[in-house]
TrEMBL record:
Its EC number is 4.1.3.36. One of its GO terms (molecular function) is 1,4-dihydroxy-2-naphthoyl-CoA synthase activity. Keywords: Lyase, Menaquinone biosynthesis. SUPFAM superfamilies: ClpP/crotonase. Substrate binds at Y81, V112, A113, V114, G115, G116, S144, K256. Belongs to the enoyl-CoA hydratase/isomerase family. MenB subfamily. Pfam families: ECH_1. One of its GO terms (biological process) is menaquinone biosynthetic process. HAMAP family: MenB (MF_01934). This is 1,4-dihydroxy-2-naphthoyl-CoA synthase. Pathway: Quinol/quinone metabolism; 1,4-dihydroxy-2-naphthoate biosynthesis; 1,4-dihydroxy-2-naphthoate from chorismate: step 6/7; Quinol/quinone metabolism; menaquinone biosynthesis.
Length: 267
């Protein structure tokens, strides 16, 4: 998709070789629909192809949310995430391009990062949080799960116990705790977030791009088997999300009521 046609995502290149990709759906807490994912993938392709770009900052509009994951209202209304360029919802491809682009990606987390939005920052090479940012998973409440990078790589980053705590209790983690857990690299005042991310990007841009490229691939190599796990997980999610149990979670969110999963318990 051409960037002139973007509606959900902003893309610009700042002086010093840093591309800034901005999720721009603040009225939905920057939740993504299919089109948003298509545009994010295209934005990362622009950054990949541009020889002037040495690092990418991923952030979002406003100060409330980085990304609230999949657009649950869209899903509750239509059963899916809306129209896409190829008719497919390409979140897995987005995960892959954040990992595969041979330039470091820095998440500038400007608010809530939850569900699939939390997974996006986890996949970034570096994360900087605003002091008010919060972090969490939501899938088991709204009829979803990310049992690929969203669970396995999260456990790699913060450890098994904490990853299980995030997915099983769905508690919100504040920025100070996130830093203590190693979930983010730094916490800064909200007014300094973007400048800090740009400064980190420019620092990276001052180093050898070939060395940085090899290092990123090297860091990825040991966890790349999780891509296979991710294929399995998203195939399962596709079946589950459309099921009665999966849809109960999405409908409950849209109707502003607690979900009732009791009838789906099994031995
Ligand atoms: C994000 C919140 C914690 C914020 O809570 P807060 O109290 O600050 O604000 P509100 O709840 O009043 O929200 C303001 C406004 O935004 C709307 N909104 C919030 N999140 C979403 C969302 N995800 N989708 C659509 N709209 C959203 C909210 O309804 C309000 O609108 P009003 O009109 O009422 O003003 C809290 O809002 C929250 O917990 N949100 C839901 C988080 C969530 O469940 N996310 C989805 C998880 S599942 C997922 O991300 C996912 C990812 C994938 O990659 C998938 C891939 C393939 C299939 C499925 C996938 C999938 O489901």
């Amino acid at each position: 998709m051409r960037r002139e046609d973007f509606t959900d995502v902003g893309y610009r290149v700042e002086p010093g070789g840093v591309a800034v990709v901005t999720i721009d759906r603040p009225r939905r807490m920057n939740a993504f629909r299919g089109r948003t994912v298509d545009e994010l993938i295209s934005a990362f392709k622009y950054a990949w192809a541009d020889g002037e770009v040495a690092a990418v900052v991923l952030t979002a509009s406003g100060d409330r949310a980085f990304c609230a994951g999949g657009d649950v209202k869209e899903r509750a209304e239509t059963g899916g995430y809306g129209e896409t360029e190829w008719g497919t919802f390409e979140v897995e491809r987005l995960h892959r391009i954040i990992r595969d682009i041979p330039k470091p990606v820095i998440a500038a987390v400007n608010g809530v990062a939850v569900g699939g939005g939390h997974v996006l920052h986890v996949l970034c090479d570096l994360s900087i949080a605003a002091e008010h940012a919060t972090f969490g998973q939501a899938g088991p409440r709204v009829g979803s799960f990310d049992a690929g990078f969203g669970s396995a790589y999260l456990a790699r980053v913060i450890g098994e116990k904490r990853a299980r705590q995030m997915w099983f209790l769905l508690e919100t983690v504040d920025a100070a705790t996130a830093e203590r857990w190693g979930l983010v690299n730094a916490v800064v005042p909200a007014g300094e977030l973007l400048d800090t991310a740009l400064a980190w990007g420019r620092t990276i841009a001052s180093y050898s791009p070939t060395a940085i490229r090899f290092l990123k691939h090297s860091f990825n190599a040991d966890s790349d088997h999780m891509a296979g796990l991710s294929n399995l997980a998203f195939a399962g999610l596709d079946l589950y999300a459309h099921s009665e149990e999966g849809m109960e979670g999405a409908k409950a969110f849209a109707e502003k009521r607690p979900p009732d999963f009791t009838r789906f318990r099994r031995s």
